[in-house]
Amino acid sequence: MLKNKDYVPADGKPFIYDYTLEQLQNWVKEQSEPAFRAGQIYDWLYVKRVGSFEEMTNLPKLLREKLAAGFSFVTLTEITKLESKDGTVKFLFGLADNHAIETVIMRHNYGNSVCVTTQVGCRIGCTFCASTLGGLKRNLTAGEIVAQVVKAQQLLDPEGERVSSIVIMGSGEPFENYDATLTFLRQMTHPKGLNIGQRHITVSTSGIVPNMIKFADENTQINLAISIHAPNDALRSKLMPVNRRYPFEEVMDACRYYIEKTGRRITFEYALIGSVNDRPEHAEELAKVLQGMLCHVNLIPVNYVPERDYVRTPRDDIFEFHRILERRNINATIRREQGHDIAAACGQLRAKHMETQAR
């Protein structure tokens, strides 16, 4: 865990979105206010989605002043907003300390999904990913993760639509910011808040084994996805340096533990990289490794990143890889690309911003 990367706002005040309803109830009690005030505050934050304490008009003025003195709202300043012809919206948000993060809204025929970021940058070092460019700067607080979904919902409000699902697949490794990620998940699923169903949320990890096991023991219905990207230890270590810390077989053992503990299917994310991990022999080896597991493989044609040397797998090879898995009775799909025309790969927009700032 990266305690030295935990963030404290410059004014020393916690973000109001960092607090769960139960924590707000305790705070209200400490202020000698009636218990129902906590529910009112929570309603203003998640149902009415106001941007200041002064807008919480059914609270006494003194209580609003106490809130303003004790908490800050998360500052997410819109630096860039890109809209794809397929409806995908990608934001680059500036934080209070001048760092920047990305958030993406993806529109599907079954609803609107939001992809959130959990860290500023990333230290995992996947060689095909733009998120790792520049390394890890710091963890986000739970409130800064929450604020991304609130911002997305505010965009959808005028359309009469809502955020129906969340994927924690933006920049960073959620399980290296475990406590904040879990607090975020509790906020998102709370029935008095945005009330998003647990089965409509997916958290993705590169394989932080201790916290994969811990997550299995949390007894949630939240979906788990593992970035695997290779069928063996040697190739995975070349693509994902984290594999040297948590070897392939340990990750697979943790996946089996999760399935046994929860009874839930696990998703394996596999980025197809031209002539690197996309050959028929890789598909055969992957099928052998996953044989008998309650799992699904999500094949992802890798996005081109200028700073990396990898190329996309040819279309016919993608379909052949998929056919091999299916013939071996491994459930697999090819991810439908979205936002391809707006630098949709994780970290690309932030990387461009960092490059501009450095000039």
UniProtKB/TrEMBL annotation:
Enzyme class: transferase
SUPFAM superfamilies attached to this UniProt entry: Radical SAM enzymes (SSF102114)
A GO-annotated cellular component: cytoplasm
EC assignment: 2.1.1.192
Listed GO biological process terms: rRNA base methylation; tRNA methylation
Cofactor: [4Fe-4S] cluster
Compartmental location: Cytoplasm
Domain Radical SAM core: start-end pairs: 108-341
Highest taxon of source: Bacteria
Catalytic reaction(s) noted: adenosine(2503) in 23S rRNA + 2 reduced [2Fe-2S]-[ferredoxin] + 2 S-adenosyl-L-methionine = 2-methyladenosine(2503) in 23S rRNA + 5'-deoxyadenosine + L-methionine + 2 oxidized [2Fe-2S]-[ferredoxin] + S-adenosyl-L-homocysteine; adenosine(37) in tRNA + 2 reduced [2Fe-2S]-[ferredoxin] + 2 S-adenosyl-L-methionine = 2-methyladenosine(37) in tRNA + 5'-deoxyadenosine + L-methionine + 2 oxidized [2Fe-2S]-[ferredoxin] + S-adenosyl-L-homocysteine
InterPro entries the UniProt entry points to: Aldolase_TIM, Methyltransferase_A, RlmN_N, RNA_MTrfase_RlmN, rRNA_lsu_MTrfase_RlmN/Cfr, rSAM, rSAM_sf
Keyword Transferase included in the entry's annotation: yes
Keywords tagged on the record: 4Fe-4S, Cytoplasm, Disulfide bond, Iron, Iron-sulfur, Metal-binding, Methyltransferase, rRNA processing, S-adenosyl-L-methionine, Transferase, tRNA processing
MF terms (GO), sorted A to Z: 4 iron, 4 sulfur cluster binding; metal ion binding; rRNA (adenine(2503)-C2-)-methyltransferase activity; rRNA binding; tRNA (adenine(37)-C2)-methyltransferase activity; tRNA binding
Binding site for [4Fe-4S] cluster: 122, 126, 129
Cofactor: record remark: Binds 1 [4Fe-4S] cluster. The cluster is coordinated with 3 cysteines and an exchangeable S-adenosyl-L-methionine.
CDD domains attached to this UniProt entry: Radical_SAM
Keyword Nucleotide-binding carried by entry: no
Additional detail: Reaction proceeds by a ping-pong mechanism involving intermediate methylation of a conserved cysteine residue.
UniProt xrefs under HAMAP family: RNA_methyltr_RlmN (MF_01849)
PANTHER family: 23S RRNA METHYLTRANSFERASE, RADICAL SAM CORE DOMAIN-CONTAINING PROTEIN
Function: Specifically methylates position 2 of adenine 2503 in 23S rRNA and position 2 of adenine 37 in tRNAs.
Protein's recorded name: Probable dual-specificity RNA methyltransferase RlmN
Annotated organism of origin: Cohnella nanjingensis
Gene: rlmN
